[in-house]
Amino acid sequence: MRFALTTGLVVASLMAPAAQQSTPPAPNPSAAPSTSAAPAREEWSVTDHTIKLGGQTIPYKASAGTTILKDDKGVPTGLLYSVAYTRSDVKDLSERPIAFLYNGGPGSATMWLHMGAFGPRRVRTVSGEFTPPAPYTLVDNTESLLDKTDLVFIDAMGTGYSRGAGKAQEKDFYGIDEDASAFAQFIVTYLSRNDRWNSPKFLIGESYGTFRSAVLGNVLQQRYSVHLNGICLMSSVLDLSTLTFAPGDDRPYVYYLPSYAAVAWYFKALKNRPTALEPFLEDARRYATGEYASALAKGSTLTAADKAAVAKRLSDFTGLSEDYLMKADLRVTLGQFNAELMRSRGLTAGRIDARFTGYTHDLLTETAESDPEGPAVGGAFTALINQYNHDELKFGQDREYRNTSGGAWNWTWSGAYRGGFPSAPNSQNSLAQAMLTNPKLLVEVENGYYDMATPFFATEFTMTHLGLPADLQKHLKLNYYNAGHMMYLQDDDRVHLHNNIAAFIDRATKGN
Question: Is it the case that residue 171 has pLDDT exceeding 70?
């Protein structure tokens, strides 16, 4: 999240979709000395707990520990930290689903989904506002998915307590193929050790975690014959070009317009604000792909009169002045929109969740100076994930839990996910291949209207352009929330999210 931290995406020099992909090769970590010099020794802590969900008391075990990863010669290369919550009173494990969950970044720890959305304990934050400094509050999470599935939260290499081992370095795992292969090896190891091969299996990823899920789902099925019941994509992006305002590419302006409209509506920045949001967004979708896209396609041949007409209509959707839109050549980047929308109020809108605002230091700034959502919740999550690991899970007392690896800046974006010429990484063909390989695989996509990191209209475009047969296209379902990237930060949305995913797990477990 942030521009590189937590659940969000790092976007740098990304451009266009890639060709059809095959299963990526297994990782081959380098033999450079490890900066951590960490021994390849697993550590585990298992504790017993109960939680009351939906009127029933659920006993469960929390298993916190590190799992050894090995290269193709059996040499240890790393240790992945995970926390698994498994219901204690289940006799037939084949009747109990299991879900593997992770955040994105790339380079983000999974403390957000773990401590904000689905784990049995939750960080209490203030909805849409800055959460005051410590002491913070940890509460039982009444929206935990433990009522439907066992849960395994996995921290990517370099985050949490995950680290390189032996002669390998953490950076050896910082890449699309390398990352997916590490997660696949972990999942297969977990299934074997815990006798869960015959359990219904799910992947739940957020932000770059959705990009990972597309690749990982394909790897698990093609390389290991681990067929999944369902993949849940939260705040999804599979084609990174849809987020990149690259020179000469007008598509992101089209994809972002409905999100701009939603945020302008939320902050009452519109001259003639409609009463209801969703019909207004339908109008924005139609205008974006119709008159707006047509006008942008004309480039410098667009007449002055037509340009002025488009600026007037854009002002109706975005709340920005016609003068500003004319000066921007009808093309306003995300950073520019977030800075300009409430400049007169001295506020900047958030990227991860536009409902969060922060003070603008330089009122003449052209683009957003920061993302106010990060500081608003980051302190609470960081403090309580450390305390929770140490005090309740009895793990890592002498270590700091790393909420980010910084690995995004060194991420390897090459491989089968890019075209012959430099282009934006794109994993949508991996998702399509996973669905073709396993025609019973269900996919559900959770979208926040105020998510400016992964705009919902871009996701809609991707999901309708997977090239699937009509029967498989029916296995895709999109849900929407009056929320941002992390829809679980607000109580009502977290209940809605839980109920949607619980129904998805039931549907994918019991048959289409």
Answer: yes
